[in-house]
Amino acid sequence: MTSRKKPLQPANGDAILRLENQLCFALYAATRAMTRTYREKLHPMGITYPQYLVLIVLWETDGLSVSEIGRKLMLDSGTLTPVLKRLEQQSLVKRKRSSADEREVVISLTAKGYELKGTALDARRFVACRLGMSEPEIRALRNDLMDLIEGLHPGDPENAAETDH
Length: 165
Fold this sequence. Notes:
Elements: H1 23-45, H2 49-60, E1 64-65, H3 66-73, H4 77-89, E2 93-97, E3 105-109, H5 111-131, H6 135-152
Antiparallel strand pairs: 1-3, 2-3
Helix pairs in contact: 1-5, 2-5
C-alpha cells in the first residue's frame, strides 16, 4: 500500500500562518523586486542600491554627517560606513572630519557625484514606469509604508526619517 502525502489542512486559526497571508513576505518580495528593478539602471552607473540611497540624501542636502545620513536612511553607522567608503573610492563623495566636532565625519558630494543626479532621475522614472503607478499613487503607498514603520517602532529614533506627510 502506497501512502500519498496530502497537504495539511489548516486547523482553525492556522490559516494566518500560510505564506500567502504573510504581509512580511509580501514586503520582503516587493523589496527584492524593487531593488532588482533599480539595479538594471544603477549597474551601468557603477553604483549599488544602497549607494544610490546615500546619493539621494546628499543631492537633497549636501554636507551631512554620517549620523544624519544614517538617521534619514534608518541605518546604523556600521552598515553605512562601508557604503560611504566605496562611494569615496569611486570619487563620488568626500569624507572630512567636522571642524565643530572631530568625532563627526561630514560627507559631501564631489562634482562626479553630483553629475550622476540626471542619470539617477532616469532610473527613478524607469522604475515608476515599471510600477505603472502615478506619482500621487507612489507617494500614497510610500506614506502608508512609512506609517507601517512608525507603527512597528513608534518613537524610535532609528526610523526618524523625514516623511512627506
